[in-house]
Amino acid sequence: MIEAERASLAERRPLSPHLTVYRMMLTMAMSMAHRITGVALYLGAALLAIYFAGLAAGPGAYPAVSWIVDGVTGKIILVGFVWALYHHLLGGVRHALWDRGILMGPVGREALTQATLFGGVALTALTFYLVTLVRPF
Amino acid sequence: MTSPTPFISGRTGRGSAFVSDRSGASHDRFMRLTNWLLLPLGVAVACVLASVAANPSYLEARAIVGQPLPALALIAFILIGMAHAVIGVGSIIIDYVHDANKKALAFVVNTIAGVLIAGVWAVAVALIAVFH
Fold first, then answer.
1. What is the rounded CA–CA span in Å between residue B84 and residue A38?
2. Cβ–Cβ of A137/B47 closer than 8 Å?
3. pTM, entire model
4. A42 touches chain B (CB under 8 A)
5. Which CATH number fits the domain that encloses residue A120?
6. Nearest residue on chain B to A72, judged by CA atoms?
7. B10 closest CB neighbour out of A41, A93, A101
8. What residue numbers bound the domain in which A60 lies?
9. A1-44 tens-digit pLDDT
């Protein structure tokens, strides 16, 4: 009886209508982008795990996985993965700062959100530029 | 049950934020800690991947990934990153999957996928580094 009531309560429990109620703001869009990039990184990590497995298996297996890093598709995957990584990392820093009450004011939070948005793009471009210039590995 | 936590309230200062001291609180601390750990590792992995993008042939890619520092960074990144990702995706499951059975299944699939991805990535990179 109690279990049935509990199940009924769970079914009738209201879900947050925040997406349809609040006006879309940059901080809200970036919160959604944080989750989307997180899921993209999860899927990208699965692809890269397959790539590393092919690379470890030897030259015979490599052509089957080389498309993940080579050609137009490979470039899109790697640039996308690196951008998502930087965007997500900077988003995590933003949340950690907000946990400490830093840059929580109306101006500060917008500036920080914009900084993480542009920072992700800038760091991606800088990484690919510097790596072709310096060749660290 | 609620209890004082080390979280810092933006309004009232350190130690004054009260949260429900259940798994969510420890998960939140874990996500913040791994975020800081993943910062340097993420930059290193981004550099390795950009290098592989610039040199995608089999021999060049093995030479890049098989070096000790890139290999260590890749392995540490995926082990810490997937632990972070499994909890992150878990919070999305909690928010959007409300049926108890589907939620339980999604948690199992998420955990198995996380372990598989991290395991395949880490073992493959370790093999490349060892037989470099």
1. 10
2. yes
3. 0.85
4. yes
5. 1.20.1300.10
6. B53
7. A101
8. 33-134
9. 577 776 676 666 666 666 677 788 898 899 999 999 999 999 99
Distance between CA atoms of residues A37 and A47, nearest Å: 15
Whether residue B81 contacts residue B40, with contact meaning beta carbons closer than 8 Å, is answered with no
CA B94, CA B99: separation in Å to the nearest integer? 10
Total domains in chain A come to 1
Q: Domains (ranges, CATH) in chain B?
A: 23-130 (1.20.1300)
SS (H, E, C) B89-128: HHHHHHHHCCCHHHHHHHHHHHHHHHHHHHHHHHHHHHHH
Structural domain contains residue A97: yes
Q: How far apart are CA A45 and CA B121, in angstroms?
A: 8
Q: Tokens representing B20?
A: 């429900």
Of B32, B92, B123, the CB nearest to A99: B32
- Please tell me which residue of chain A has the smallest CA distance to B12: A101
Please indicate whether, in this complex, the C-beta atoms of A49 and B124 are within 8 angstroms of each other: yes
Put simply, the answer to whether A70 touches B64 (Cβ < 8 Å) is: no
Whether A44 is covered by a domain: the verdict is yes
Residue A20 lies in a domain: no
Q: Tell me: ipTM over 0.90.
A: no
What residues of chain B lie within 8 A of the CB of A41, using their CB? 81, 85
> Taking a C-beta distance cutoff of 8 angstroms, is the pair B51, A137 a contact?
yes
Whether B93 contacts A42, CB under 8 Å: no
Residue A3 lies in a domain: no
Q: A70 and B56 in contact by Cβ < 8 A?
A: yes
pLDDT of residue A14: 60
In chain A, residues with a C-beta closer than 8 Å to the C-beta of B43 are: 127
